[in-house]
């Protein structure tokens, strides 16, 4: 046996990660049933003399013990199929790492099943797309802590680095890694939608052309809003379509697709009762985009949006609003992690998670440094809005944020994430919500009882016997 690590699934992500490992001097090999993928690996991995195996038995035999096998196959049934195929060939103590965007309860189930058979299983979130896999992703491995020492050096070597520090850390037991990656994607959806709403405001609210929009995003990306998503978004507004000569973005259908991780984030947050207004709005936003025919019909009935009325200084105010809404998206994701950590016993280190998201992943951003510092100051912080430094920045931009969102609403420009962000904030800073009325209503029609502000216990009133 000659190789230290093996990869199953040699699509672009798998090949790139394998090449990345080889670059760092690890002896690695791959397995894929597709001859085409094997040929591509051989071609791209010429410098490292990388060969893959078509036969799974040969692949397994080639690995040193304990065998460490990384799966980069599509999430879902295929992961189970691959596990079922390889486990009869493995020995006790071997390690399997599932690096897809697997649903976290699947990961919980698989880790239990594999533990019973004497294997170690990791669910590892990997972010950064194809480039990340090739040159440094952010990695979120969860599973048995004891087995982590076997893969630690490898994962640290291939991960992205920020100030020389690796963007990987042991996340927690069971499905902790996949849960954290899923939450990362929820935040990803919200920031993408916020950028899209900003584009809409600039284009339809202010009447900017693509070149002007590009300049706004470019300017912002040189400041505190600097982030990977801002950076690629500004570049989208430079990319010409060969076919028409127009910018390609103008030739793309306005219907957003998804693979499910954002939706899962919202669904699970509902289960554990953590409000994710901004993230929820971004998931619903993609669903709204799919209703093209209905939207076109209703635009005919109600008319298009108008332009923003007072454009004076609007661009700078919009930057404040973006910052404010961006904070809400990250804060909600972190809040979900805080709650899930308790609920599922993930023992998450939120400072560490913010730290490894600073580089390599899709939501990497200047702001993650602030998040990192907030949790470093207080590891048990329930919510980012409690951090003094973040509070001050929210406070500074609040007036402009309200003005921007109010102007967009007045003009009829749809800003689901911006609106959710301000509503979320205003609700969270409301000491006494009107929810007493909900309790009264519930008790009125269903005798569901209510609690009183002046005494302990549950109460019921005969509401329909109005005096
Ligand atoms: C990443 C991404 C990635 C995800 C895509 C597509 O961190 O590299 O999150 O894992 O698959 O972003 O997601 P949707 O198809 O749901 O938009």
TrEMBL record:
| Keywords of the record | Gluconate utilization, NADP, Oxidoreductase, Pentose shunt
List, for all copies, the residue spans of the domain called 6-phosphogluconate dehydrogenase C-terminal: 177-464
**The keyword rRNA-binding belongs to this UniProt entry's keyword annotation:** no
Name the top EC class. oxidoreductase
Please name the SMART domains in this protein's record: 6PGD
Highest taxon above the source species: Bacteria
Query: Pfam families attached here?
Result: 6PGD, NAD_binding_2
Annotated pathway, please? Carbohydrate degradation; pentose phosphate pathway; D-ribulose 5-phosphate from D-glucose 6-phosphate (oxidative stage): step 3/3
Q: Which GO terms describe its molecular function?
A: phosphogluconate dehydrogenase (decarboxylating) activity
Q: What is its EC number?
A: 1.1.1.44
Oxidoreductase recorded as keyword: yes
Q: Which NCBIfam families match?
A: gnd, PRK09287.1
> What is the name of this protein?
6-phosphogluconate dehydrogenase, decarboxylating
Q: Which organism is it from?
A: Pedobacter ureilyticus
């Amino acid at each position: 046996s000659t190789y230290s690590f093996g990869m199953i699934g040699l699509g672009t992500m798998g090949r790139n990660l394998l090449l990345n490992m080889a670059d760092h001097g690890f002896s690695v090999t791959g397995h894929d049933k597709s001859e085409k993928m094997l040929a591509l690996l051989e071609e791209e991995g010429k410098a490292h003399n990388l060969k893959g195996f078509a036969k799974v038995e040969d692949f397994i035999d080639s690995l040193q013990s304990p065998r460490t096998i990384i799966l980069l196959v599509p999430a879902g049934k295929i992961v189970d199929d691959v596990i079922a195929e390889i486990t009869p060939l493995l020995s006790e103590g071997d390690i399997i790492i599932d690096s897809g965007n697997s649903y976290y309860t699947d990961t919980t189930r698989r880790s239990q099943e594999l533990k019973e058979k004497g294997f170690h299983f990791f669910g590892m979130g990997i972010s950064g797309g194809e480039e990340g896999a090739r040159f440094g992703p952010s990695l979120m491995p969860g599973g048995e802590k004891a087995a982590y020492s076997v893969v630690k050096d490898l994962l640290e070597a291939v991960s992205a680095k920020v100030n020389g520090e690796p963007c990987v850390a042991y996340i927690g037991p069971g499905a902790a890694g996949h849960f954290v990656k899923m939450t990362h994607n929820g935040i990803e959806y919200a920031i993408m939608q916020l950028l899209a709403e900003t584009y809409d405001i600039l284009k339809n609210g202010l009447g900017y052309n693509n070149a002007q929009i590009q300049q706004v995003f470019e300017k912002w990306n040189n400041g505190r809003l600097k982030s990977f998503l801002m950076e690629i978004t500004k570049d989208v507004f430079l990319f010409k379509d060969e076919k028409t000569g127009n910018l390609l973005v103008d030739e793309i259908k306005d219907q957003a697709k998804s693979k499910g991780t954002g939706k899962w984030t919202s669904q699970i947050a509902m289960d554990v009762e953590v409000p994710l207004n901004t993230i929820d709005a971004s998931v619903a936003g993609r669903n709204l985009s799919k209703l093209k025919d209905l939207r076109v019909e209703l635009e005919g009935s109600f008319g298009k949006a108008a332009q923003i009325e007072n454009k004076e200084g609007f661009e700078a105010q919009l930057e404040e609003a973006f910052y404010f809404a961006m904070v809400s998206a990250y804060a909600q994701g972190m809040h979900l992690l805080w709650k899930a950590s308790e609920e599922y016993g993930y023992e998450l280190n939120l400072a560490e998670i913010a730290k490894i998201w600073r580089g390599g992943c899709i939501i990497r951003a200047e702001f993650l440094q602030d998040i990192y510092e907030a949790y470093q100051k207080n590891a048990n912080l329930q919510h980012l809005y409690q951090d003094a430094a973040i509070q001050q920045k929210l406070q500074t931009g609040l007036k402009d944020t309200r003005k921007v969102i109010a102007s967009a609403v007045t003009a009829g420009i749809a800003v689901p994430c911006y609106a959710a962000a301000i509503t979320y904030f205003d609700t969270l800073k409301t000491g006494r919500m009107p929810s007493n009325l909900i309790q009264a209503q519930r008790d009125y029609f269903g005798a569901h009882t209510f609690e009183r502000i002046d005494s302990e216990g549950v109460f019921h009133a005969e509401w329909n016997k109005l005096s």
